Amino acid sequence: MTEEKKFIRKKPSRLTTIREISSESRGPVRILGIVVDSSPGSALVQDLYDEDFKKAGSIWITIEGTLEPKKKYLIIGDVTEKTDGDTKIPWLNATLAHDVDSLDIALYKEVLELEEKVTKTMS
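User: That's the sequence. What structure does it adopt?
Assistant: Structure tokens below.
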């Protein structure tokens, strides 16, 4: 007899800006960012999806391996927190980091806006 494999379905990740992430955020999130600093197992990522680049946030992520500095990545993971004294700092425990260096961010945003319009029209 063959053994049936069971796969646990995960919740879909929601695309968000780093500025919107807090230690209270729940569920998987998806961010678009550029690596500012990287070492084996962690990286500091700055937001590319945020409209206001001057206020764009950054977040430390934990990841297997090393991400290349100055490269763009689509990162999916769960928000955790690191406690530093009385301060809770959000961290992203990345399960996936996909290199999107050749992605046209403006076109990507345009497609997402179009998808949102279509979804609103259909419902």
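The first helix runs from residue 105 to 122.
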